[in-house]
Structure prediction request, 118 residues.
Amino acid sequence: QVQLVESGGGLVQPGGSLRLSCAASGRISMIHAMGWYRQAPGKERELVAITITSGGSTNYADSVKGRFTISRDNAKNTVYLQMNSLKPDDTAVYYCNVVAGGILRTYWGQGTQVTVSS
Prediction:
């Protein structure tokens, strides 16, 4: 069993910054990918950013390119999302996602609210 604990959400003004963290614990075998998704009210959950273990590549949603940066600390099984120049459209619940194990099982965090408003 793998547990994901997220932190760092909150209320921020437009143009501000937040840093989300997600620590994975438990019986963790090979982690294949770590990433962040978000879901705004009335919308489907969408990929924000992901980092792939093999090769170290990262991918971002077009809407956050140049503003958000995903990083990870493999020793701590932790993934971060640095969010700069936040916009009201970034308001959503942000979910950590980890793909791990031989059968590529997907794990989700509980979600953390990010609200961008003046």
In short: The two ends are 40 Å apart (CA to CA). The mean pLDDT is 95. Residues 14 and 87 are 5 Å apart (CA to CA). The chain has no helices and eleven strands.
